[in-house]
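Extended Data, panel c. Modelled sequence:
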Amino acid sequence: MSKFAWITERPVAHRGYHDMNKEVWENTLSAFSRAIEAGFAIECDLQYASDGVPVVFHDGDLERLCKIKGDVRERTSGELGLLAVGGTKDRIPTLKQLLQLCDGKVPLVLELKGKQGDDEGFAEAVLEVLEGYKGLVALMSFDHWLLKDLKSLEAPYPVGLTAGGNEPEQFFVHDEAMQLGLDFISYFYGDLPNPFITAQRKRGIPVITWTVRDEAARIHTFENADQMTFEGFDPRLQA
């Protein structure tokens, strides 16, 4: 059994346990509070604010979630913290605020959203904020340069590849990333099964899927992987 088996022990709430952005919006402290209350692990996205502070936000721009134009990375964490998400009382939180809220109650799976050529210090800043945190944390990214940074900084957490695809040339690129000594994989469920994931699971690498939104996808996940990242339903009702 992998020493990071905890990554697959419970369903992972995608961007927190939101309600598909009706009243409780993704990647907000409200969505994270709901996940903690339900006992789900939390997946969320990290961006790099202009003052070098990791903030919890998915998109590179502010339009979809905050209804204003502009690049997340051109604003400080303080400026971002004033912006309402989805017109609610929730504001864009920092990673530090998430850690204070979660306080080790449920595992965190943090995805670093990279911007090549503009990520200097990002991995280091994330590790700095995490220093001394007592809860379970895993770090992952689509961006191989960030994975390389995390490994070269000897991150004391499991580091994973976020990926998708079912073409041989994509498997080659994924295999290259795994040569960094990665600990787990988060993979698009619709691209399973495939030879890359089958081989990695045989090696004992834990695999979670993204993003499961219905029963068919849930069943497909557990036929081909170890756990799901989900949204839009309550997995406790499917047990």
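The beta strands are 12-14, 41-48, 54-56, 108-112, 137-141, 159-163, 184-188, 207-212, 227-230. This feature is highlighted in the accompanying rendering.
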